[in-house]
Design a protein that fits this description.
This protein is α/β, with parallel strands linked by helices. Among the domains are: 156 residues, Rossmann fold, CATH 3.40.50.2030; 215 residues, Rossmann fold, CATH 3.40.50. Helices cover 48% and strands 11% of the residues. Strand 14, helix 23 and strand 15 form a beta-alpha-beta unit. Helix 5 packs parallel to helix 10 and helix 10 crosses helix 23. 58% of the residues are buried. Bound molecules: iron/sulfur cluster and Broken Fe4S4 cluster (MSK).
């Protein structure tokens, strides 16, 4: 894009609800991400290729042909690897700090410090505890929970040689990691070590920095994220298949609308309880509304959708547009992927934003420091705040642009096993018979540099046509849902083999497996399949993709997928193209080391072909072609 080049509406988003709200935003004088992208374009080439270093005050240094080394002597390889290492550290820290917050809440429940939350899935609690070597014989629920909370805390520290869930990884793969020196130890240790290595004068060997990038990302996938997922299931229930709805049409004109946004379900689960409080519903009626409507955005939305079937208003690029409907009273956020602009967009309407995490305050928003000990009272306070704002809504500025689309959600690993009759055998048989050629996890975000959801949706459609089962998480969920792919009837769009299996099991060809941290469910499923077949994950006909990614977390997810042996497609490269060494390692060299690498392809149809080829190679390797 050149500077000041504004794209047409059709080029901005594939969705009618988004386009109508972008037009309304323009009319209402509201600036959106698409406007700001124009202001920021063209982007700095040094930054884009990763060769700008700000790691010390002898610089900042920018590498070019004329100046191939920074003041300290670091070349493009070192600078790109360090920048990428820190980028990955941001992602690993985000997921893992979320995981830590979950352990703290779980610890508080186990130690009786709060009765605001309960252990909902005791069967899973005991199963996970036993899986991690805890002897549960004769212990009551809270005793098991205390031991499991301590065990999880250990995965963040430096005291162990490996994080707890490494035991899920196939033996041969663990040996490979051992040889490479990338078995993840404690999450905090790996992140701190990356910050240390990338300080001026430490790790000045790009491949060595990248190896640690993989180790740290593995700590995210197999510990920080996996722990977040497993604890959330234990506290709030393991997701099971259920129906819900998606798009801006889930916002209701005649109700008090509350949107929850961010990633961690600890706040939003209590908001869900509060909106069902009869006193608050009566108060909403007093104010003239028909009731209180709760809907989700991004991954907090995914958490509530998976477990409770709460409808999803939209993904990353829909967050500003949801407010532009003029019908949202309150947006309650926790952390990650929340555009700071939401405060300004809200101020153009009557929408108030409430922040709840002390580590994620937004200037201009109201802050409520959320404590698990008084979660219920605080949640009710927020819902009351939303109700009080309902009379401030201007009906003339309300436009809810779509009818909701039906979706099916809730495919945890446990739910999938349930649908398969309790074992992976039917899935493995279908893969062996070629009815399902393989599986691909399409994960991640939106990015206004792309036509919104064009790649997310078309890649999923193209893969299912080729009999490749698709699993979605994060913001791709909304794309797949709006495109009708999350319903069993979507089997009609799949190839004949996948269609037959979906029809037999009554499942859609695209399965919703959760939020960003729930990519750990995909890792777990891959490990179960590999263990069942006695191979490494890298031998399986699997791939991952993040077509429209934007965040540090998405890069870390991609890196732990690759390091775990899963070929990973990205729509565009991270900022590493300024180093041939780093780029070649990511796109090729890693294949020899960990059995998988990245591939870059902005066109979803070409990407489907690349993924298909890779899956065919893997099938051949297993003697299935
Ligand atoms: Fe420049 Fe080296 Fe300092 Fe980076 S660490 S800013 S390359 S002198
Ligand atoms: S919210 S990381 S935009 S998926 Fe998880 Fe969506 Fe990507 Fe954030």
């Amino acid at each position: 894009m050149k500077k000041n080049e504004k794209r047409s509406l059709d080029e901005m988003s594939i969705w009618p609800d988004a386009r109508r709200m972008i037009e309304k935003a323009e009319r209402d004088g509201v600036e959106t991400a698409w406007d700001r992208l124009v202001q920021q374009t063209p982007h700095c080439k040094f930054g884009e290729s990763g060769v700008c270093c700000r790691n010390c005050t002898m610089g900042p240094c920018r590498i070019s042909k004329k100046a191939p080394r920074g003041v300290c002597g670091a070349d493009a390889d070192v600078i790109v690897a360090r920048n990428f290492g820190r980028f990955l550290a941001g992602g690993a820290a985000g997921h893992s700090d979320h995981g830590r917050d979950c352990i703290e809440a779980f610890h508080a429940v186990a130690h009786g410090k709060t009765d605001e939350y309960q252990i909902t899935d005791t069967e899973k609690l005991v199963r996970i505890a036993e899986e991690l070597g805890i002897d549960t014989e004769g212990l009551d629920t809270m005793q098991v929970a205390k031991l499991l909370a301590d065990e999880f805390f250990q995965s963040f520290a430096s005291i162990r040689d490996e994080v707890a869930f490494v035991r899920r990884v196939p033996e041969a793969q663990r040996e490979r990691w051992q040889r490479l020196g990338i078995i993840p130890r404690g999450v905090d240790r790996e992140i701190a070590e990356m910050m240390h290595r990338t300080h001026m004068g430490c790790d000045n060997d790009a491949p060595n920095t990248l190896l640690h990038g993989m180790r740290m990302s593995l700590a995210d996938g197999w510990a920080g994220s996996m722990i977040a997922t497993e604890i959330s299931d234990i506290l709030f229930g393991t997701p099971m298949p259920k129906k819900s709805r998606v798009n801006l049409g889930v916002i209701k004109e005649d109700q008090v609308n509350i949107l929850v946004h961010g990633h961690n379900p600890i706040v939003s689960e209590k908001i869900l309880e509060a909106v069902q409080d009869p006193e608050l519903i009566a108060l909403a009626r007093e104010k003239g509304a028909q009731g209180i409507n709760l809907a989700g955005l991004c991954c907090t939305g995914n958490e509530l959708l998976m477990r409770k079937g709460i409808p999803m208003a939209g993904n990353h690029l829909m967050t500003e547009l949801a407010i532009v409907t003029g019908a949202v009273e309150l947006i309650i956020v926790d952390y990650q992927c929340i555009m700071p602009s939401l405060v300004q967009v809200g101020s153009c309407y009557h929408t108030k934003m409430v922040t709840t995490a002390d580590k994620a305050k937004f200037t201009g928003a109201e802050h409520i420091s959320f404590y698990v000990e008084k979660a219920g009272e605080q949640a009710r306070e927020m819902v009351r705040m939303a109700i009080e704002r309902y009379p401030l809504r201007n009906p003339d500025r309300v436009d809810i642009p779509a009818e909701p689309v039906e979706i099916t959600t809730g495919f945890s690993v446990e739910a999938l096993l349930g649908a398969l009759g309790g074992s992976l055998t039917p899935l493995i048989e279908a893969i062996k018979a070629g009815k399902i050629r393989g599986a691909v996890g399409i994960v991640g975000c939106n990015n206004p540099k792309y036509k919104h959801d064009y790649c997310n949706l078309n890649l999923a459609k193209e893969l299912i046509k080729r009999d490749i089962l698709v699993i979605v998480t994060g913001c791709v969920t909304t794309a797949a849902g709006k495109g009708g792919l999350l319903m069993p009837q979507a089997a009609e769009m799949a190839g004949p083999g996948l269609q037959e299996i979906c029809n037999a099991l009554g499942i859609p060809p695209v399965l919703h497996m959760g939020s960003c941290v729930d990519n750990a469910r995909i890792l777990h499923l891959a490990a179960l399949l590999a263990n069942e077949l006695g191979v490494e994950i890298s031998d399986l006909p699997l791939a991952a993709s993040s077509p429209e990614w934007y965040s540090e977390k998405a890069a870390t997810i991609g890196t732990y997928a690759v390091a775990s042996g899963i070929y990973t497609h990205l729509g565009h490269p991270p900022n590493i193209t300024g180093s041939q060494t780093v780029a070649e390692l990511a796109l090729k060299g890693l294949d020899d080391l960990v059995g998988a690498c990245f591939c870059i392809e902005p066109d979803p149809f070409k990407a489907a072909e690349l993924i298909h080829q890779r899956i065919t190679e893997k099938r051949r390797g297993l003697g299935l072609e």
